[in-house]
Each structure stands twice: as structure tokens, then as C-alpha cells.
Amino acid sequence: MLHSSILNMQAAPRALCERCERPPNVCLCSFLPATPFDTRFDIYCIQHPHEAKRKAISSIPLLRHSLAKFKLEITTQISTLPSLPLLLFPGPQARELTAKDLIPGRTLLVIDGTWKEAKKIVHMNASLLAQVPRVFISCEKESIYGTLRKEPMRGCVSTLEAVAEAISVMEEQCATQEYLLHAFHQMVHQQQQYVVLGQEQTRLHYDNLPKPIKKKEPIEEASQSRSEVVQVPREYVMYRMETSMQGQQEYIQVDHPFLCGYDEAINICKQRNKKRSRGERYGVLSYEKFIQKQSAAAIDN
Ligand SMILES: [Zn+2]
């Protein structure tokens, strides 16, 4: 079913479901609660602007639509602190979160982004956050993301998993946590199917091709036969590279993935690059390859 829905998709960037903010074929609305869960504390999430672009694998849309008291702000500069803030972020000053942290008016402050981006936000707002008590949660399990998004170390989990764990600790109940984790599991499973499907399509296609003829061909003919190989529609994504002052590189997704053949993907990217100067041009990769590169870069950093 997933296979045919992928092939039927249009090459143009897809519209997102208004509720869950995901492409219609991977809409998660059926996994969302009919009415958002109420929590006994507020959750204020600071999301790094780069993370806001990684929609396909973000856990934030799920949180936003599952929790009534979840507030999101996309920024690197925190302007004002919410009431009775408690920062959920590891560090030497952090102590373990307990049920005693639940007091009336409490706001749990969470940072969403890659490990490096989250650290940057905490660093940039150090003076404001210095007065905020800091807590961590002990998570022995591996992140549900699995191979889809590599976490920098054991015990690092997605924002959704961290928030779900915080709810279960502070409210001393597991129902909300279990609901959130189940929905998140479905989302990750969908995404993994895409990755597997992409690999399978590539393998099948190459397996069915006649053995390449090892004689010199005119350049034009050679490039034509190569391009035929890669015209099987698959998900592509445009990206830009960003290099920090320390020389660390990051792959930043531009817009949503789109489905088409290789040549078309190259053309779409060329069109987008027409008015962009040399250092600002986008690249294009299969979505699967992009996720691999992004994860590898995050680990190297
Ligand atoms: Zn939806």
C-alpha cells in the first residue's frame, strides 16, 4: 500500500496535513488522541530554527497535538522565561527529576534540536538560564528513533520521549507516556518503511538491468544510459550545507521531500539555484541518503 501511494505522488512539494503537519500519505492523525491530554504542568519548548525544517522526522508535531499545555517557540534567543521554569537539560548542575518538582504553576522548559543545536541554545541564553533549576531524566532505553536518527550517546532520546518520561515521573502515571510513545513508534515505523522501500527499489532496479558493456561509448550515449538507471521515482530532498566557525558541517533540509526521477530532481534543484550565489546553492540527494549524511555529520560534530 505504501509502495503504490509513493508512486502516485506528485513530483511537486506536497501539501501538509493541517492537523499533524505531515505529508498526507504519512498523516498521523489516526494516532492522535481525540482531545489533547491535559497535564498538571505547562511545557514550553524552544526549538532551534534548523530543527523546525526537519519536519519528516520531528517528534514535535505529535507533542503539539497530543498535549493541551504544550507551547512551542522557534528561536535561539529566549526572550522571557515562563512561570516557575524547570530546565530539562543534562549538565553538572542538573539533578534528577522527581515527582516533588510538580508544584502549581510549574513550566517544564525543553530544548529541541540536535544535541549540538540544543547545547548552543543553552549556551547563548546562559545568563537567563543561570537562575533556572536544571533537571535530567535517567533513560536506560535506546531512543525509538533507532537507526533513523542517531543520537550522540546512549541515554539521549527524542524530545517526545523526554517529555513523555517527565510526565510519567512528575505526575506518577504512565498512561499519557504510553500513548505518546505508541504514536511516536508508528511515526518512526512509517519513516523506516520509506528508507527500506527506497533501498529495495534501487536494488531491484539495478538487479534487473543488463550487465554494463565495458567498451568506450560516446559521452552522450553513456550519460543517457546512466540516467535511465536512476529515473525510478523516489523521494528526493534539497539541502544546504552550513559550516560553523569551528569548521563543523551540517546538512540542513530545505522544504519537504518530493518524489520524482533523478533527472527531474536535478532540474528542480537547478531551477531553485538560478538566483542563488555560489556559496548559497542547494544540493539534492535521495531522502534516504540525506538522512544518512545528516546523521553521520551530527556524529562527527
Ligand atoms: Zn494528519
Structure report:
Helix 6 (159-171) runs antiparallel to helix 7. The chain has a six-stranded parallel β-sheet. Strands 8-7-9 form a three-stranded antiparallel β-sheet. A hairpin with a 5-residue loop joins strand 7 (234-243) and strand 8 (249-260). The model is unreliable at 1-11 and 218-227 (pLDDT under 50). It has helices at residues 2-7, 49-53, 60-66, 115-124, 126-129, 159-171, 175-207, 219-229, 262-273, 287-300; strands at residues 42-47, 70-74, 85-88, 95-96, 107-112, 134-136, 234-243, 249-260, 283-286. Helices cover 38% and strands 17% of the residues. It contains ten helices and nine strands. It has two domains: 16-194, no CATH class; 231-300, no CATH class. With 301 residues, it is an alpha/beta fold. The structure holds zinc ion. Residues 17, 19-20, 22, 27-29 line the site of zinc ion.
Keywords:
301 residues; alpha/beta; 2 domains; six-stranded parallel sheet; three-stranded antiparallel sheet; globular; disordered N terminus; binds zinc ion
